[in-house]
Specification:
- It comes from Populus tomentosa.
- Keywords: Apoplast, Copper, Glycoprotein, Lignin degradation, Metal-binding, Oxidoreductase, Repeat, Secreted, Signal.
- Its EC number is 1.10.3.2.
- By secondary structure, the protein is mainly β.
- Helices cover about 10% and strands about 35% of the residues.
- The protein is built from six helices and 33 strands.
Length: about 575
């Protein structure tokens, strides 16, 4: 024992530094930018809602799925392992995917699906974005149960442009079907009819007490008085835009689609599928003698059927006393707008403005290289011979289109065929820049509502500044269409009702602080004008985020060519990219 080395006593300052270094190294968040690794196991799990038990396709057995948390600047690796019979892809909705198009996720656009027993690692870096986004399946209607939040924290030592909230809470809106949604859309596409609608809306997977057999399945948001909470609201519903309101509480909107906005107050919000909205909820200074319902219900202007129900959660103030006290409190209800409140929606969307300050500028293209005018809406396809169809007119099938082209998904992935110069027979680059047959878009619809079918794309040279007017039509009913562009954010520089007027409307465009987002509603019987800079090479899907319209063909693709610099080119595909 006598030879044992004597312990070295470090000077206290050095010991402190070493201890600090050790603690810092244990906490990865202190690194400037790190790599975050996730594994998404795609499995079946039984869930019961509305007294119906269904086997859901899930990520890691969770419904809704797990949170993906990262900081701005982090690299994210998500290994998706498919243990189910269905083909799977995952889309990281709203992530810019700068030169990482192989990780974007839409089936047959940027990748072939992940087949049973196969795996694929999505590899992307979050650049210049912070806020709330979402991930979801991007094949058929599987996103009805495969979805979850993406929470992008600001860089270290960066703060929010508003007061730091006491707590942050993701709130995801979804839809519940008592039957398998895959069977619902398969039947609709076969018969040509409108698909059966969902049986309930959900808040964080729970329908709430307004539905049969669901009082126990109610989301409760427990809060303390005199605090500010950040609610990260996500609409992951398949086919429905939703109003949201909390009784007797005003919300402050501070961000949408992971872009900070000039804060504004609202009692009721509208969120389309694919959109996210961060709001500050200031709780009452003293314990109120009530609990408060939060409601989410549909906005719909079309002519078909829709799920006209309301999901409810409860805002509960934590009482120091026992829970018995809660049972005696009344629960106050908010009032949602009528389901077809188009005027409310137009006024609400106009309130969104980019911060547009030195730190968070709005880089709106002030000049435009290429202008496009796309009609978006419904139409019909002829019924196949010797079959009977249940579409809108005599023996037709429902369809949907952009510039009257109903997009047909190929059987191989567009990005692969483009990258390897094998696009012959896969897609053509003659997507129409304007409607081939102009008509009174929002007036009396034309007699011929047939669409053309094809796999067509628009080709843009790198760094082209684009202005796109999206014009809704009244064919088979004027409907709102939340359009989502992959790989980009865009600026909504104008919106209006009726037919867009290229001579008058541009003078009212907002080129100073327009809202920047990845999904924007084309108003029912109206139009929006958007601008973006094509600075991200790849093949990028653009589609309506109402899945029924996507399935019917309201979708198209932009091919953005490589730029001259090495960091402006698409790299070769990863070795584990799924094969068709």
């Amino acid at each position: 024992m006598g030879n044992s080395p004597r312990p070295t006593v470090l000077p206290s300052m050095a010991a402190l530094q070493l201890l600090c270094f050790f603690i810092f190294s244990l906490v990865p968040d202190f690194a400037a930018a790190i790599t975050r690794q996730y594994t998404f196991n795609i499995t079946h799990k039984n869930f019961t809602r509305l007294c119906h038990t269904r086997s859901l396709v899930t990520v890691n057995g969770k419904f809704p799925g797990p949170r993906l948390v990262a900081r701005e600047g982090d690299q994210v690796l998500v290994k998706v392992v498919n243990h189910v019979a269905e083909n799977i892809t995952i889309h990281w909705h709203g992530v810019r995917q700068l030169t990482s198009g192989w990780a974007d996720g839409p089936a047959y656009v940027t990748q072939c699906p992940i087949q049973t027993g196969q795996a694929y690692t999505y590899n992307f870096t979050i650049t210049g974005q912070r806020g709330t986004l979402l991930w979801h399946a991007h094949i058929s209607w599987l996103r009805s149960s495969l979805y979850g939040p993406i929470i992008i924290l600001p860089k270290l030592n960066e703060s929010y442009p508003f007061k730091k909230p006491y707590k942050e809470i993701p709130i995801l809106f979804g839809e519940w079907f008592n039957v398998d949604p895959e069977a619902v859309i398969a039947q609709a596409l076969q018969t040509g009819a409108g698909p059966n609608v969902s049986d309930a809306y959900t808040i964080n997977g729970l329908p709430g007490p307004l539905y049969n057999c669901s009082a126990k399945d109610t989301y409760k948001l427990k809060v303390e008085p005199g605090k500010t909470y950040l609610l990260r609201l996500i609409n992951a519903a398949l086919n429905d835009e939703l109003f949201f309101s909390i009784a007797n509480h005003t919300l402050t909107v501070v961000e949408a689609d992971a872009v900070y906005v000039k804060p504004f107050e609202a009692d009721t919000l509208l969120i389309t599928p694919g959109q996210t909205t961060n709001v500050l909820l200031k709780t009452k200074p003293h314990l109120p003698n009530a609990t408060f319902y939060m409601f989410a219900g549909p906005y719909f202007t079309g002519i078909g059927t829709f799920d006209n129900t309301t999901t409810a959660g409860v805002l509960v103030y934590k009482h120091p006393s026992s829970n018995n006290h809660l049972k005696k409190l009344p629960t106050l209800k908010p009032t949602l707008p009528p389901f077809n409140a188009t005027g409310f929606v137009a006024n609400f969307t106009k309130k969104f403005r980019s911060l547009a300050n030195a730190k968070f500028p709005a880089n709106v293209p002030q000049t435009v290289d290429r202008k496009f005018f796309f009609t978006v809406g419904l139409g019909t396809n002829p019924c196949p011979k010797n079959t009977t169809c249940q579409g809108p007119n005599n023996n037709t099938k429902f369809a949907a289109s952009v510039n009257n082209v109903s997009f047909v998904l190929p059987s191989v992935a567009l990005l692969q065929s483009y990258f390897f110069g094998q696009s012959n027979g896969v897609f053509t680059s003659d997507f129409p820049q304007n409607p081939t047959t102009p008509f009174n878009y929002t007036g009396t619809p034309p007699n011929n509502t047939m669409v053309s079918n094809g796999t067509k794309a628009v080709v843009l040279t790198f760094n082209t500044s684009v202005e796109l007017v999206l014009q809704g039509t009244s064919i088979l009913g004027a409907e709102s269409h939340p359009l989502h562009l992959h790989g980009y954010n865009f600026f909504v520089v104008g919106q209006g009702f009726g037919n867009y007027d290229p001579n008058k409307d541009p003078s009212n465009f907002n080129l100073v602080d327009p809202m920047e987002r990845n999904t924007a509603g084309v108003p029912a019987g109206g139009w929006i004008a958007i601008r973006f800079l094509a600075d991200n090479p790849g093949v990028w899907f653009m589609h309506c985020h109402l899945d029924v319209h996507t399935s019917w063909g309201l979708r198209m693709a932009w091919v953005v060519l490589d730029g001259p610099q090495p960091n402006q080119k698409i790299p070769p595909p990863p070795s584990d990219l799924p094969k068709c």
